[in-house]
Predict the structure.
Amino acid sequence: MFSEWKFTAKDIAEKPDLFMSGHRACAGCAPAIVLRLIMKALRGPTIATFATGCMEVVSTIYPYTSWKIPYIHTAFENVAANASGIEAALKILKKKGRRAQEQVDVVAFAGDGGTYDIGIQALSGAVERGHDFLYVLYDNEAYMNTGIQRSGGTPHGASTTTSPAGKIIPGKLEHKKPIADIMVAHDIPYAATASPYYWKDLITKARKGIEIDGPAFLHVLAPCPRGWRSDISKSIEISHLAVETCIFPLWEAIDGEYQLSTPSKVIALRPERKKPVREYLQMQGRFRHLFTPKFEKIIDEIQHITDERWQRFLKKCNIV
Amino acid sequence: MAVAKQKMLALNGDEAVAYAAKQSDVDVVAAYPITPQTIIVERFSEYVANGEVDTEFVCVESEHSALTACLTAAATGARAFTATASAGLALMHEILYVTSGCRAPVVMSVVNRALSAPINIHCDHSDTMVERDCGWIQIYVENSQEAYDSIIQAFKIAEDPEVLLPVMVGLDGFTLSHTLENVQTLPDDLVEKFVGMRQFPLVATHEKRTVPFKLDPKTPMTIGPLDLYDYYFEHKRQQEEAMQTAPKIIQKVHEKYAEISGRRYGDGLIEQYHLEDAETAIVCVGSTSGTVKTIVNDLRSKGISVGLLRLRTFRPLPVKEITKALENVKAVAVMDRSLSFGGHGGAVFHEIRHALYDTSTHPFVVNYIYGLGGRDTNPNLLHKIYRDLQRILETQRSEQPVQFIGLRE
């Protein structure tokens, strides 16, 4: 099903960049790192397509572009439909002998707004139809491009400009939608989660998503220092803690079979390594209000929900 | 070239459109069902299921995705086609602009239908008229034969490197879409040859290479970038230049098509019916012109000098041709099958009256809003319009420039 692609840090460093420097992402932007890593995972000729969002904006300010591969952006809610049209065209043009016979892969990128919320219809449709493409969700957990508004991917308790922490309301009341599980429920051949801290795991999963026949979904947590109100030098550290606290477990589901990835599996086997969510939350200003006597119970709530989800997840992975 | 031997088929308007698309060597069709367009996607699905076409049929989950997939397929180098109506077109609204802005030569048939609310499945032109500013070429047909002919021409117009704009072909819901008509069809190979292979203009990439304009890993380019106040305006101006070039191409394609089919619709932009010496005239778009022609014949037989101007191409608006065609007419009635709420008359009226403002003759121009939601426009109503025009001429007064016709008041 998958090639035996082995690589070292040196191989990756030496592989030419296809997402180029000179883009205008902020200092400490994890999504920019994610894009660069994913571009390292390509196996050959590829067309990229993007939903409207911060990474689309920072990477293609006319007349400049950071993309060394063909790239198209059309709108916010339709990146999976973009990919559908590209894939359909590649297939038929190859069949009719109107383009080179080589394999051309399609990778679609969207943020959490373009995936959890406005883009879910097009995504669900494209996955149901079984187009052969990799969908990468770079999840910075709010509408960062428009100035930090809450999305269906924003976690419980986070303060955003449309779920502000006020005197009465402690930030976002609702919980993060389990988007990757929703994709698994579509009987998608490949779904996985990844964190840029575990860059090797991320690249491997992106490659698997590209290699598998049919749709693949890769959910990457990507801290945004502007929106998370975090230190620009800590984005990767936060990506690490998200996994260590089990707020964002790493797994993959091949044909619906869930399997924990090594970093999370280690925690499953040695639960004492699981860190309290407090450590993750306290690095981020969007949760600052939770560290006041008035709202402190929300931290316990988040811990409780995280533990509960983790236990449920372990059952799904047949680890009891 | 001699006119080809053709096969007469009994087709309704939707079937005629599907048949034309089938013959036009379309690579990708992405579509979603909506009345009264559904027959088009049904027929096309049958062609696919029976192996009669070499087309990738993407049965999408919405019209928004239908047009999106056609756009990106076209950007990838495919010939793409879709069809919709009413609410479906409204849902595409955002992507209509993106398609023309990305210069994706998608062809779409719109089976004209009223917009909700209240929900109504029958014909009027509200759906396409509201999209007149979206950068698409708009062609409105009179009958199913013209629907067939226009779809074939549309690919050739849209893909012309001098144009490179999407084309919308409007046909009246039910009146045409569901009414059986004898349609002359050209042989498959002749249509395929006429439409030809997709052409790609050469463009400069950010790497300073000159390459065909499409997504191709060998010649990477970025399509649909963020384009701010330093360049956006020029790009919009380029779209307008393409629009200004389009009439020439529309006429050229129309003429070349006439050579093989023997069929002409005026000059491809407008169709004049007994206008040369007409004192009064109706201007309209769509199937109503068929009925108007019979009224013109009737009145002419009684010695009354009336005429008809049918706008076939509404975008780009053939201003020069319109003013020339109406230069001797003294009173004009413009019929609009859509309503601009709170405005001064309908969309076609705005254009005609506006175009005639610069003429020295300054004819009377009045507007009739008719047939909304599929309301029948019978000959009596059309007779009344010509009578009204006659009275305006006699009294040299037009008291009510905009009025409704054929409804309870």
Notes: Residues 232-261 of chain B form the longest helix (30 residues). The domain at 271-405 of chain B is CATH 3.40.50.920 (Rossmann fold).
